[in-house]
Amino acid sequence: MKGNSDVAGAEWIKSTYSNGDGGSCVEWAPGYAAATGLVPVRDSKDPRRPALLIGADAFSSFVRGVRLGSRWE
Fold first, then answer.
1. Where are the beta strands (DSSP E) in 9-56?
2. Angstrom distance (rounded) from CA 49 to CA 25
């Protein structure tokens, strides 16, 4: 995983797990991921900050864990 802000032209989608009370707001850019194999993830409350680029396999594992109700603390 690495930080990178070079995703200026990416189309972002807000996660369905994001809530409306100002917390847990996550966006990702699937088109960028399809083209590069890296999944950009950012905080939708502050989109000017750099995005994290996560390998597609690691991101898939993370999403699978979220869907299964895993908790990371």
1. 13-14, 26-28, 38-43, 51-55
2. 13
